[in-house]
Write a structure and sequence with these properties.
By secondary structure, the chain is α/β, with parallel strands linked by helices. The protein is 37% helix and 23% strand. The radius of gyration is 32 Å and the shape is elongated.
Length: 411
């Protein structure tokens, strides 16, 4: 036993001879305190919580059953291990106490070897549980810090663009998430960039790569569009040998080239530098020109991106390339499509469609598509319609994946 630390044991017994024996046997190795009845024991525990309780069953004022019941119902004390003290003929009572949550029992009269062995075993288990609890608490603190840092990656506010509405919804399944979204104005242009993405897997690993993907996308965008840097700072890709300025080409062609070049660089970086991690992301990355309504985009293996018109779903924006980061030298094709007045762009991650109800049934794409068909007055109304339906369907079921939605409305 460590001389600098002794476990504390509370002996609860109304028989002085039993107490004297236990004190003699245990006093050199443990800090001992004594209570002669159950009520006194509970009062002592409230003031000085012991590491272990040796609890007699038959006592005046309050018996061992009642003490044990109160301990196990109290969140502060329910983890204190309790060893019941019993006579040989009280085995049925001992079984009842074990069922109520007692850790073990000691028969009277006391056997020294058995006494030391059972107390040592129970305290060792407590020591391991305490270590696990402290580790779990430290992990919770670290995860909370991670959650706060990760939240800082999301935009504090969304750009306000005349004639357009942008709303988002994010709901993590754990403290940290592999989903992300971003919306940002392009400083040297009139366009608005946005991205919604889902990194494979869940938990801390996915969250770290979420930060990496998001930072690469935002930093490349700000590098290209920020403060007078030359256009196309990267080596031109094959079939793009000319280097026309943006002013010499239509906006959607300009944006196509930018998206294709930048996403190829991001893909190659992830696939080569972090290839051992086997992490990738599906994403939808678009640029909207607010005046013309033209949307230029790359869909990297992402599902659930829909253009909804006044008569219902106009088109699905299918993948134009693979998930990002799986393999180097993948081809990502940018495309353009106009967003007309009173149309919606709906983008989400598969945490919506793959969510399950309490019966294990998927929410599914069909249910989602039915919600998009009736006309909505605003992006917020469309978002509320989906979140309300989804919450009702999954009520009572555990959330298994992150949920992210972005709805853009040309009003």
């Amino acid at each position: 036993m460590n001389e600098l630390f002794k476990y504390t044991i509370l002996i609860v017994d109304d028989t002085e001879s039993n107490i004297d024996i236990l004190v003699d046997l245990l006093g050199n190795d443990y800090e001992i305190s004594v209570a002669m009845d159950g009520q006194s024991a509970l009062e002592d525990i409230s003031d000085n919580t012991p590491d272990l309780i040796l609890l007699d069953i038959m006592m005046p004022v309050m018996d061992g059953y009642k003490v044990l019941e109160k301990l196990k119902k109290n969140s502060r004390f329910k983890e204190i291990p309790v060893i019941m003290i019993s006579a040989i003929g009280e085995m049925e009572s001992v079984i009842k106490c074990i069922e109520m949550g007692a850790e073990d029992y000691l028969p009277k009269p006391f056997n020294v070897v058995l006494l030391q062995a059972r107390i040592g075993a129970v305290l060792e288990k407590k020591h391991l549980r305490d270590k696990e609890r402290l580790y779990a608490e430290s992990m919770e603190v670290d995860l909370e810090i991670g959650r706060q840092i990760q939240n800082s990656f999301f935009p504090e506010s969304l750009p306000r663009i005349e004639g357009w509405q942008i709303v988002t919804h994010f709901q993590a399944s754990r403290q940290v998430s592999g989903d992300f979204y971003d919306v940002f104005e392009l400083k040297d242009d009139n366009g608005v960039g946005f991205v919604i993405a889902d990194v494979c897997d869940k938990g801390v690993g996915a969250a770290l790569f979420m930060a990496l993907f998001r930072s690469l996308i935002r930093s490349f965008s700000e590098l290209y569009y920020g403060g007078g840097l030359p256009k196309f700072p990267f080596e031109d890709v094959e079939n793009h040998s000319h280097r026309n300025s943006k002013a010499q080409q239509p906006g959607d062609i300009h944006y196509k080239r930018v998206l294709e070049i930048v996403l190829s660089h991001i893909n190659n970086y992830i696939a080569t530098t972090h290839n051992k991690a086997n992490m990738f992301a599906t994403l939808f990355w678009g640029i909207i020109e607010p005046e013309s309504g033209m949307l230029t985009y790359i869909n990297g293996g992402h599902v659930g991106v829909v253009v909804v018109g006044v008569k219902g779903i106009r088109t699905m924006l299918e993948p134009t390339g693979p998930a990002v980061g799986m393999l180097p030298d993948m081809v990502f094709e940018a495309k353009s499509i106009p967003i007309y007045h009173d149309e919606f762009l709906v983008a989400l991650t598969d945490g919506i469609t793959e969510a399950r109800n309490t019966g294990g049934e998927f929410y599914g794409e069909d249910k989602l598509m039915q919600l998009l068909t009736p006309p909505a007055q605003s992006a917020q109304q469309m978002l509320d319609r989906i979140t309300t339906s989804h919450a009702a369907y999954t009520a009572g079921a555990e959330q298994s994946d992150d949920i992210t939605m972005m709805i853009i409305h040309r009003s």
